[in-house]
Design the sequence.
């Protein structure tokens, strides 16, 4: 197993463990409890790290796209996230649309 695949697997398992722990204590903790804030911060940091890795050092099909196209798609996704009221699906679709448009463009 490649190091990147192992890192992805371990991160996914950690996120899953956090979700299970969250479910186990969901009834006992208030939403403003420090443990809930910590778990949310760890999950967001893990996701952010993998987004950065996917943009800066991609593997597979994403590696065939130029860096500028990947960065532009990330920017479009962030703009879509803010523009559509912090909804993930429109943000994802905006980023994918930019990737599709820039796929064949030599940057």
Sequence:
């Amino acid at each position: 197993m490649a190091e990147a695949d192992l890192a992805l697997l371990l991160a996914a398992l950690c996120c899953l463990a956090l979700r299970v722990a969250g479910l186990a204590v969901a009834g006992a903790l208030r939403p403003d409890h420090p443990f809930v804030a910590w778990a949310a911060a760890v999950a967001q940091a893990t996701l952010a790290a993998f987004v950065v890795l996917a943009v800066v050092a991609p593997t597979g099909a994403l590696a065939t796209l130029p860096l500028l196209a990947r960065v532009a798609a990330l920017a479009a996704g962030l703009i879509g996230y803010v523009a559509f009221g912090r909804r993930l699906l429109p943000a994802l679709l905006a980023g994918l649309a930019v990737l599709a448009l820039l796929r064949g463009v030599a940057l």
Observations:
- The chain has a mean pLDDT of 88.
